[in-house]
Known about the structure:
Elements (H helix, E strand, L loop, with lengths): L6 H9 E3 L7 E4 H5 L14 E5 L2 E6 L13 H15 L7 E4 L1 H7 L6 H16 L1 E4 L10 E4 L3 E6 L5 E7 L2 H7 L5 E4 L9 H13 L7 E4 H8 L5 H14 L5 E7 L5 E7 L22
Parallel strand pairs: 1-5
Antiparallel strand pairs: 2-10, 3-4, 4-6, 5-9, 6-7, 8-9, 11-13, 12-13
Amino acid sequence: MDGFRNGDAARWQRDLFVTLPGDMAVRDQQDLMAHPFFSLAKSRRTVPIDYAAGDVCIRVEGTAEHGIATIWDADVLIWAASQLVEARDAGLRTARQLVTTPHQILTFTGRGTSVRDYQRLRAALDRLQATTIVTNLRQADQRRRHRFSWINEWKERADAAGWPLGLELILPDWFYQGVLEDAFVLTIERDYFDLTGGIERWLYRLARKHAGRQAEGWVFDFRHLHLKSGSLARFANFAIDLRSIARRQRLPGYRLSVERRRDGSERLRFRPGGVLATPPEPPNTYPQTRGENR
């Protein structure tokens, strides 16, 4: 409880979760894997994501200053989900307000710990806090909507002399409750953090959610994937990226194949058992360049 004084100790006991050190399994929340909640672009996106399929409605909005949170920013939420599940399985008390260090988040997600990495983490936290989501997912009445941000608040802690004491962030109830229900969390490969393309990362999460470990895997029509991604890329460019990803075979745990139908349409099939066909690139950093998969 370093850094907490006077009334802080009581508050720490009541509604703070001090995150756990050490290695742990990487967990992802299934709703975030199955639906387009994040920008796949490395450039700032301010155009909202609007998605409707069946009874599910999602709208994601960002500010002009920060844009919509990206799929790289979502690594912070993967880290948070991993922490919460690890603590719950160990019989420890959890809370929506997490006390941690930037170093812990950066090392868990395979990033460096330079000054620039810390600055990029702050930018990611800003985007997560500034992004707002409106959805009817997991609402008892499909006509009802839940509005939230990925992070309600975040702050850096320091002592009286200005020495850093860590980081606090508050998760939204929608995310927190989804993580702590067993059916809404899946374990993912740590090699996921080595994937540098936005579409590539999104495809892996989609495959893990739908294909799982089924021998025959799962198949998606190209146009359905384009709609489901929320991408602003033209369909023709999106299809080029899909074919390129299938050629490279870099999705951990899956093999991809493109199937052409008689009418000329294409489908992407995911089968379990793939390996990294090329050496992994250096650990990715928070996005600074343009493009969704390059």
